[in-house]
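Weekly modeling sync, notes
Attendees: S.R. (lead), two postdocs, one rotation student

Agenda item 3: backlog of single-chain predictions. S.R. asked that every request posted to the team notebook include the full sequence so nobody has to chase files. The rotation student volunteered to paste the first one in as an example of the format we agreed on. Action items at the bottom.

Example entry:
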Amino acid sequence: MESVTHDDIGTYYYAVGLPDEQSITKDEAWKILVKFLLDQEIAKPDILTHYYPQVAYETGNDPGNPVWRILLICYDYQESGLPFTKYEVFVYAHDGSICGYRDIDPVG
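Predicted structure, as returned to the notebook:
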């Protein structure tokens, strides 16, 4: 298993899995993510059009409490003038709450 450390949830060990019957869908997780980014004023609708998502269903630290991990990556940062920031959001798959968020800025 690989790991990533977040300020808000500590070290998270993740392993890819398949959604179970109790889980929200990938589309529902996407809607929750967009609402979170807009409500927290992290991103604006016109900026989100410059990002593409990488979505994974993960059963990491607690296999009984899986998450949807959504990584947003700016695909046209050179043309748009936006910074090459990535947004990573974790949504609990069983209740749809946000369990982790971070900006990933490039190094160098």
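Discussion: group reviewed the output briefly. Residues 2-104 form one domain.
Action items: rotation student to repeat for the remaining queue; S.R. to check formatting next week.
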